[in-house]
Protein backbone atom coordinates (compact mmCIF):
# COMPACT_ATOMS: atom_id res chain seq x y z
CA UNK A 1 0.00 0.00 0.00
CA UNK A 2 1.39 3.40 -0.93
CA UNK A 3 2.44 5.72 1.88
CA UNK A 4 -0.17 8.37 1.12
CA UNK A 5 -3.01 5.85 1.39
CA UNK A 6 -2.14 4.95 4.98
CA UNK A 7 -4.59 5.93 7.69
CA UNK A 8 -3.50 8.03 10.67
CA UNK A 9 -4.29 7.21 14.31
CA UNK A 10 -3.67 10.02 16.76
CA UNK A 11 -1.63 9.07 19.82
CA UNK A 12 -1.04 12.34 21.63
CA UNK A 13 0.93 15.61 21.60
CA UNK A 14 4.68 16.11 21.95
CA UNK A 15 5.23 18.11 25.17
CA UNK A 16 9.01 18.23 24.72
CA UNK A 17 11.61 17.99 21.97
CA UNK A 18 15.29 17.94 22.83
CA UNK A 19 18.67 17.86 21.15
CA UNK A 20 21.89 16.69 22.80
CA UNK A 21 24.29 18.24 20.32
CA UNK A 22 27.49 17.10 22.07
CA UNK A 23 27.44 13.36 22.62
CA UNK A 24 27.28 12.43 26.30
CA UNK A 25 25.98 15.77 27.58
CA UNK A 26 22.66 15.52 29.42
CA UNK A 27 21.65 19.16 29.70
CA UNK A 28 19.72 19.38 26.44
CA UNK A 29 18.84 22.21 24.14
CA UNK A 30 15.03 22.42 24.18
CA UNK A 31 13.36 22.98 20.83
CA UNK A 32 10.14 24.81 20.13
CA UNK A 33 10.50 23.76 16.52
CA UNK A 34 13.21 21.55 15.06
CA UNK A 35 14.24 20.06 11.74
CA UNK A 36 15.18 16.44 11.32
CA UNK A 37 18.26 14.93 9.74
CA UNK A 38 19.14 11.34 8.94
CA UNK A 39 22.66 11.34 10.40
CA UNK A 40 22.02 12.91 13.81
CA UNK A 41 21.63 16.28 15.50
CA UNK A 42 20.52 19.27 13.47
CA UNK A 43 22.10 22.70 13.75
CA UNK A 44 19.94 25.21 15.60
CA UNK A 45 19.50 28.76 14.37
CA UNK A 46 19.19 31.67 16.78
CA UNK A 47 16.00 32.35 18.76
CA UNK A 48 15.06 28.66 18.57
CA UNK A 49 13.85 29.02 14.97
CA UNK A 50 14.87 26.27 12.58
CA UNK A 51 14.98 25.59 8.89
CA UNK A 52 14.78 22.26 7.07
CA UNK A 53 17.80 23.11 4.91
CA UNK A 54 20.31 23.93 7.64
CA UNK A 55 23.50 21.88 7.62
CA UNK A 56 23.68 19.32 10.43
CA UNK A 57 26.45 19.77 12.98
CA UNK A 58 27.58 17.22 15.52
CA UNK A 59 30.18 17.33 18.26
CA UNK A 60 32.07 14.72 20.23
CA UNK A 61 34.46 14.85 23.18
CA UNK A 62 37.46 12.57 22.67
CA UNK A 63 40.66 11.62 24.43
CA UNK A 64 43.85 12.51 22.63
CA UNK A 65 43.99 8.99 21.19
CA UNK A 66 40.63 9.59 19.49
CA UNK A 67 38.41 7.40 21.67
CA UNK A 68 35.00 8.88 22.45
CA UNK A 69 34.18 10.20 25.91
CA UNK A 70 30.60 10.32 27.23
CA UNK A 71 28.91 10.41 30.60
CA UNK A 72 29.62 6.69 30.87
CA UNK A 73 33.32 7.47 31.28
CA UNK A 74 33.08 11.01 32.63
CA UNK A 75 29.77 11.50 34.50
CA UNK A 76 30.43 15.23 35.07
CA UNK A 77 29.89 15.79 31.35
CA UNK A 78 26.15 15.75 31.99
CA UNK A 79 26.47 19.10 33.80
CA UNK A 80 27.57 20.92 30.65
CA UNK A 81 24.78 23.01 29.09
CA UNK A 82 24.51 24.25 25.52
CA UNK A 83 22.88 27.28 23.90
CA UNK A 84 23.23 28.95 20.50
CA UNK A 85 23.72 32.65 19.82
CA UNK A 86 24.76 34.38 16.61
CA UNK A 87 25.99 31.20 14.91
CA UNK A 88 28.03 30.26 17.97
CA UNK A 89 27.85 27.28 20.30
CA UNK A 90 27.94 28.44 23.93
CA UNK A 91 28.92 25.95 26.63
CA UNK A 92 28.51 26.48 30.36
CA UNK A 93 29.45 24.29 33.31
CA UNK A 94 29.66 24.75 37.11
CA UNK A 95 32.75 26.69 38.13
CA UNK A 96 33.74 27.45 34.52
CA UNK A 97 33.66 30.58 32.39
CA UNK A 98 31.43 30.09 29.36
CA UNK A 99 33.04 28.77 26.20
CA UNK A 100 32.00 30.36 22.90
CA UNK A 101 32.77 28.38 19.76
CA UNK A 102 31.99 29.12 16.11
CA UNK A 103 29.76 26.51 14.52
CA UNK A 104 31.77 26.73 11.29
CA UNK A 105 35.37 25.64 11.76
CA UNK A 106 38.40 26.55 9.69
CA UNK A 107 39.31 23.92 7.13
CA UNK A 108 42.90 24.17 8.41
CA UNK A 109 41.86 22.72 11.80
CA UNK A 110 43.27 19.25 12.37
CA UNK A 111 41.25 16.17 11.42
CA UNK A 112 41.12 13.43 14.07
CA UNK A 113 40.56 9.75 13.50
CA UNK A 114 38.04 8.89 16.23
CA UNK A 115 36.56 5.69 17.63
CA UNK A 116 32.85 5.49 18.52
CA UNK A 117 31.75 2.09 19.84
CA UNK A 118 34.75 0.53 18.17
CA UNK A 119 34.03 2.03 14.75
CA UNK A 120 36.19 4.57 12.94
CA UNK A 121 34.86 8.05 12.18
CA UNK A 122 36.48 11.44 11.68
CA UNK A 123 36.04 14.75 13.43
CA UNK A 124 37.52 18.21 12.93
CA UNK A 125 39.28 19.68 15.96
CA UNK A 126 37.52 22.62 17.60
CA UNK A 127 40.75 24.22 18.83
CA UNK A 128 42.96 24.45 21.89
CA UNK A 129 40.58 26.70 23.83
CA UNK A 130 37.83 24.07 23.70
CA UNK A 131 40.30 21.32 24.56
CA UNK A 132 41.58 23.22 27.59
CA UNK A 133 38.01 24.00 28.72
CA UNK A 134 36.98 20.34 28.83
CA UNK A 135 40.31 19.28 30.29
CA UNK A 136 40.04 21.86 33.09
CA UNK A 137 36.43 20.99 33.85
CA UNK A 138 36.78 17.20 33.93
CA UNK A 139 40.26 17.19 35.54
CA UNK A 140 40.92 13.51 34.77
CA UNK A 141 42.73 13.49 31.41
CA UNK A 142 43.48 15.57 28.33
CA UNK A 143 40.43 15.98 26.08
CA UNK A 144 39.62 17.44 22.66
CA UNK A 145 36.30 18.51 21.12
CA UNK A 146 35.67 17.54 17.50
CA UNK A 147 32.92 18.24 15.00
CA UNK A 148 31.46 15.97 12.34
CA UNK A 149 31.12 17.61 8.93
CA UNK A 150 28.68 16.77 6.18
CA UNK A 151 31.33 15.47 3.79
CA UNK A 152 32.75 12.99 6.32
CA UNK A 153 31.96 9.29 6.15
CA UNK A 154 29.28 8.24 8.64
CA UNK A 155 29.12 5.01 10.64
CA UNK A 156 27.02 2.04 9.56
CA UNK A 157 24.55 1.24 12.36
CA UNK A 158 24.42 -2.45 11.44
CA UNK A 159 28.03 -2.83 12.58
CA UNK A 160 26.68 -2.22 16.09
CA UNK A 161 23.28 -3.89 15.65
CA UNK A 162 23.49 -6.40 12.77
CA UNK A 163 19.68 -6.55 12.49
CA UNK A 164 19.61 -3.01 11.07
CA UNK A 165 19.71 -2.19 7.36
CA UNK A 166 23.29 -2.03 6.11
CA UNK A 167 22.58 1.30 4.39
CA UNK A 168 21.41 3.01 7.60
CA UNK A 169 24.13 5.40 8.78
CA UNK A 170 24.71 7.77 11.69
CA UNK A 171 27.40 10.20 12.77
CA UNK A 172 28.07 10.24 16.53
CA UNK A 173 24.70 8.98 17.95
CA UNK A 174 24.71 5.42 19.29
CA UNK A 175 22.68 3.95 16.43
CA UNK A 176 19.95 6.46 15.50
CA UNK A 177 19.36 10.22 15.61
CA UNK A 178 15.84 9.93 17.07
CA UNK A 179 14.75 8.22 20.28
CA UNK A 180 11.15 8.48 21.49
CA UNK A 181 9.87 7.86 25.02
CA UNK A 182 6.46 8.42 26.58
CA UNK A 183 5.75 10.22 29.83
CA UNK A 184 3.55 7.28 30.83
CA UNK A 185 6.50 4.87 30.62
CA UNK A 186 8.59 7.11 32.86
CA UNK A 187 5.69 7.38 35.33
CA UNK A 188 5.36 3.59 35.37
CA UNK A 189 9.05 3.19 36.15
CA UNK A 190 8.86 5.75 38.95
CA UNK A 191 6.07 3.79 40.68
CA UNK A 192 8.69 1.05 41.15
CA UNK A 193 11.54 3.35 42.26
CA UNK A 194 12.35 4.45 45.80
CA UNK A 195 14.16 7.50 44.38
CA UNK A 196 12.36 8.97 41.37
CA UNK A 197 14.26 9.53 38.14
CA UNK A 198 13.80 12.23 35.52
CA UNK A 199 13.30 12.17 31.79
CA UNK A 200 16.89 13.44 31.34
CA UNK A 201 18.22 10.19 32.77
CA UNK A 202 17.10 8.64 29.47
CA UNK A 203 17.90 11.42 26.99
CA UNK A 204 14.96 11.08 24.57
CA UNK A 205 14.77 13.48 21.62
CA UNK A 206 10.97 13.37 21.61
CA UNK A 207 8.68 12.89 24.59
CA UNK A 208 5.08 11.82 23.93
CA UNK A 209 2.10 12.17 26.25
CA UNK A 210 -1.50 10.97 26.02
CA UNK A 211 -0.71 7.27 25.62
CA UNK A 212 -0.42 4.30 27.96
CA UNK A 213 2.85 3.08 29.48
CA UNK A 214 5.07 1.35 26.92
CA UNK A 215 2.56 1.85 24.14
CA UNK A 216 5.51 3.17 22.12
CA UNK A 217 6.75 -0.44 21.95
CA UNK A 218 3.92 -1.14 19.50
CA UNK A 219 4.37 1.82 17.15
CA UNK A 220 5.97 1.28 13.76
CA UNK A 221 5.60 4.29 11.46
CA UNK A 222 4.93 7.73 12.94
CA UNK A 223 4.06 11.15 11.55
CA UNK A 224 4.92 14.23 13.66
CA UNK A 225 4.63 17.62 11.95
CA UNK A 226 5.59 16.71 8.40
CA UNK A 227 8.31 14.29 9.51
CA UNK A 228 7.82 10.59 8.80
CA UNK A 229 9.72 8.11 10.99
CA UNK A 230 10.02 4.34 11.13
CA UNK A 231 10.84 2.17 14.13
CA UNK A 232 14.21 0.48 13.84
CA UNK A 233 15.01 -0.82 17.31
CA UNK A 234 14.11 -0.68 20.98
CA UNK A 235 16.60 1.33 23.02
CA UNK A 236 18.82 -0.97 25.11
CA UNK A 237 19.77 0.83 28.31
CA UNK A 238 23.23 1.06 29.83
CA UNK A 239 25.03 2.55 32.81
CA UNK A 240 24.52 6.07 31.39
CA UNK A 241 20.99 6.01 32.85
CA UNK A 242 22.47 5.82 36.36
CA UNK A 243 24.18 9.21 36.08
CA UNK A 244 22.19 11.83 37.99
CA UNK A 245 21.60 14.66 35.46
CA UNK A 246 21.47 17.23 38.28
CA UNK A 247 24.68 16.27 40.12
CA UNK A 248 26.81 14.33 37.64
CA UNK A 249 27.18 11.51 40.18
CA UNK A 250 27.01 7.95 38.86
CA UNK A 251 25.06 5.38 40.89
CA UNK A 252 25.91 2.34 38.71
CA UNK A 253 22.75 0.54 39.84
CA UNK A 254 19.52 2.50 39.58
CA UNK A 255 17.35 2.84 37.57
CA UNK A 256 19.10 0.12 35.56
CA UNK A 257 18.49 -2.66 38.10
CA UNK A 258 14.78 -1.87 38.38
CA UNK A 259 14.43 -1.79 34.59
CA UNK A 260 16.10 -5.21 34.39
CA UNK A 261 13.44 -6.59 36.72
CA UNK A 262 10.67 -6.09 34.15
CA UNK A 263 11.94 -4.67 30.86
CA UNK A 264 14.18 -7.39 29.43
CA UNK A 265 13.68 -8.49 25.83
CA UNK A 266 11.87 -11.55 24.60
CA UNK A 267 14.20 -14.59 24.58
CA UNK A 268 14.01 -14.63 20.77
CA UNK A 269 15.71 -11.19 20.71
CA UNK A 270 18.49 -12.08 23.12
CA UNK A 271 21.09 -12.00 20.34
CA UNK A 272 20.21 -8.33 19.69
CA UNK A 273 19.74 -6.87 23.16
CA UNK A 274 21.56 -9.40 25.36
CA UNK A 275 20.94 -8.49 29.05
CA UNK A 276 20.14 -4.80 28.52
CA UNK A 277 16.67 -3.59 29.58
CA UNK A 278 14.61 -1.78 26.95
CA UNK A 279 13.22 1.71 27.51
CA UNK A 280 12.28 3.94 24.57
CA UNK A 281 12.35 3.35 20.83
CA UNK A 282 14.88 4.35 18.16
CA UNK A 283 13.48 5.70 14.89
CA UNK A 284 14.89 6.38 11.46
CA UNK A 285 13.87 9.54 9.61
CA UNK A 286 12.11 8.43 6.42
CA UNK A 287 10.97 11.89 5.31
CA UNK A 288 12.91 14.95 6.47
CA UNK A 289 10.87 17.93 7.63
CA UNK A 290 10.11 19.99 10.74
CA UNK A 291 8.24 19.30 13.96
CA UNK A 292 7.47 21.39 17.01
CA UNK A 293 6.45 20.92 20.61
CA UNK A 294 2.70 20.38 20.77
CA UNK A 295 2.44 18.66 17.39
CA UNK A 296 0.14 15.63 17.51
CA UNK A 297 1.80 12.26 17.07
CA UNK A 298 0.13 10.05 14.48
CA UNK A 299 0.61 6.34 14.07
CA UNK A 300 0.54 5.47 10.38
CA UNK A 301 -1.54 2.33 9.97
CA UNK A 302 -2.77 0.45 6.92
Overview of this structure, please?
By secondary structure, this protein is mainly β. 9% of the residues lie in helices and 34% in strands. The chain has 4 helices and 21 strands. It has helices spanning 128-138, 183-190, 256-260, 270-273; strands spanning 7-13, 16-19, 29-30, 33-35, 58-63, 68-69, 81-85, 88-92, 99-102, 111-116, 119-125, 143-148, 155-156, 169-170, 178-182, 206-208, 221-224, 227-236, 278-287, 290-292, 296-301. It has a 9-stranded mixed β-sheet. Residues 1-6, 27-35 and 37-57 have low confidence and may be disordered.
Give the secondary structure arrangement, pairings included.
Elements: E1 7-13, E2 16-19, E3 29-30, E4 33-35, E5 58-63, E6 68-69, E7 81-85, E8 88-92, E9 99-102, E10 111-116, E11 119-125, H1 128-138, E12 143-148, E13 155-156, E14 169-170, E15 178-182, H2 183-190, E16 206-208, E17 221-224, E18 227-236, H3 256-260, H4 270-273, E19 278-287, E20 290-292, E21 296-301
Parallel strand pairs: 15-16
Antiparallel strand pairs: 1-21, 2-3, 2-16, 4-20, 5-6, 5-12, 7-8, 8-9, 10-11, 11-12, 13-14, 15-19, 17-18, 17-21, 18-19
User: What count of helical segments does DSSP give?
Assistant: 4
Query: Biggest β-sheet: count, sense, barrel?
Result: 9 strands, mixed
What is the total tally of β strands? 21
Portion of residues in helices?
A: under 10%
> For the residues shown, what is the average pLDDT?
84
User: Whole-number radius of gyration?
Assistant: 19 Å
- Structural class based on helices, strands and sheet pairing: mainly beta
List SSEs in N-to-C order: EEEEEEEEEEEHEEEEHEEEHHEEE
Distance between the termini: 7 Å
Q: Write out the strand line-up for the largest beta sheet, numbering strands in chain order.
A: 1-21-17-18-19-15-16-2-3
What would the principal axes of the Cα set say about the shape? globular
Keywords: Isopeptide bond, Membrane, Mitochondrion, Mitochondrion outer membrane, Molybdenum, Oxidoreductase, Peroxisome, Transit peptide, Ubl conjugation
Catalytic activity: N(omega)-hydroxy-L-arginine + 2 Fe(II)-[cytochrome b5] + 2 H(+) = L-arginine + 2 Fe(III)-[cytochrome b5] + H2O
Domain MOSC: 154-300
GO molecular function: molybdenum ion binding; molybdopterin cofactor binding; nitrate reductase activity; pyridoxal phosphate binding
Amino acid sequence: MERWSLALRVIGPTPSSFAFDIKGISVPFRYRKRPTERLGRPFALTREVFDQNTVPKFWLVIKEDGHMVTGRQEPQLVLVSITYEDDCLILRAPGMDQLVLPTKLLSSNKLHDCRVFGLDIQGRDCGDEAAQWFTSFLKTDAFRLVQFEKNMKARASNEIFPSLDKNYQVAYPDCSPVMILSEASLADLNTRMEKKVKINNFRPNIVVTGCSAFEEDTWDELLIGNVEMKKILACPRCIMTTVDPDTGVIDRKEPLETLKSYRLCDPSEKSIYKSSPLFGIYYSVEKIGSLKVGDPVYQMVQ
